[in-house]
Amino acid sequence: MSEITRAAITTGPGSYEEAIKLYDIDLGTLPEDKILIEMLIASVNPSDTLYISGIYPTQNPKIDFTAVSDSSKHTVYGNIIGFEGVGRVLQVGANAKQAMNDKVEVGDWVIPLDFGSYGSWSSKLFLNPLGVVVVKNKDGLTPGGISSTKVNALTAYRMLLDIVKLEKGDYVIQNGANSGVGQYLIQFARLFGYRTINVIRDRANYDETVSFLKGLGADIVVKDSSLETDALIEQFSHLDAPIKLAINCIGGIASQKLASHLNYGGTMSTYGAITSDPVSLPAPSFMFKNIKLRGYWLNEFFVENPVSEIMETWNHIFDLMRTGEIQPQVTEFIDVFTKSDGKTQVVSLEEFKRKTIQAVNSKVKVGLRFTEI
């Protein structure tokens, strides 16, 4: 039987209104080497907006999709949007029994690592099972809670381990500390024995945000506007351990201010580019403080390591979530389904488009929710 999915597709870069197109797509019949999944949650990340705008460093191969309506069919050449999400297996092809980490069965939750030309902003997908992580033990987990583990949680976890050698008690300073990565980094650092200095914007709810971050385990929270003040410089000069690592997701002058607080030989790693401004430092920072600049892209962790090591990290994160030692990042979910007579269905194409635009323009972390869970 042919499967129909409602999906957000981009055929080329442009503004959100221009580039995000909604179609009902005929997937055809399930190939023997694929699995059919229904999406439960599609996480919306800055990488999605960069992809839509055409400035993400990698572009998935475009393919021909068959778009259907009541009266016609036509071909759409593009990709389904969405790098991250959680799905549930509806059907398993005859030769598709093995996922990355375990056997795959109907009813399993899966987190796709490789969507191919598909993406998470779609009600249903055909995927290669060898490109998905199966979540067999669902105890203590929810689809919403694990929907950002592939991007934000793993990025925070690995940055603390992969960039420089940190000793217990060392300080890590980060900007964008209330972001998803920032929330996870605070919690992982606390568990690993490191301490964090967390920089956030001066905002109307500043005190509330400080309390929230402190509740996650933040040691110090400061305003970005205070980074160059004599009082803060004096405070940091009396810390009982070095600031070895700076984590930057903003760029421009904000990254310079962040790196200025590193101790001799410290490293600043950039994993995001909120402003897209260049990341650079004055020459004396290199000459007299031996400061190092580098980047971090989680994709390299997936490419360079065996599945066993990838799953060791992922399983540790899941275990910490089950025990409550790690809280999922705060996320608001936008429902792209309706419910009638006990049945759920995806909203109309027009409403789906409106909600995807709402998602990419959101100032807070959001996810698209495809069904009641």
UniProtKB/TrEMBL annotation:
E.C. numbers: 1.3.1.104
Domain Enoyl reductase (ER): 18-347
Listed GO CC annotations: mitochondrion
Chief location: mitochondrion
The keyword Transferase appears for this protein: no
Organism domain of life: Eukaryota
Compartments where located: Mitochondrion
InterPro entries, sorted: ADH-like_C (IPR013149), ADH-like_N (IPR013154), ER (IPR020843), GroES-like_sf (IPR011032), Mito_Enoyl-ACP_Reductase (IPR051034), NAD(P)-bd_dom_sf (IPR036291)
GO terms, molecular function: enoyl-[acyl-carrier-protein] reductase (NADPH) activity
GO annotation (BP), single: fatty acid biosynthetic process
Top EC class, one word: oxidoreductase
Reactions the enzyme catalyzes: a 2,3-saturated acyl-[ACP] + NADP(+) = a (2E)-enoyl-[ACP] + NADPH + H(+)
Keyword Transit peptide included in the entry's annotation: yes
Keywords recorded for this protein, A-Z: Fatty acid biosynthesis, Fatty acid metabolism, Lipid biosynthesis, Lipid metabolism, Mitochondrion, NADP, Oxidoreductase, Transit peptide
Xref: PANTHER family: ENOYL-[ACYL-CARRIER-PROTEIN] REDUCTASE, MITOCHONDRIAL
Protein family (similarity comment): Belongs to the zinc-containing alcohol dehydrogenase family. Quinone oxidoreductase subfamily.
Name of protein: enoyl-[acyl-carrier-protein] reductase
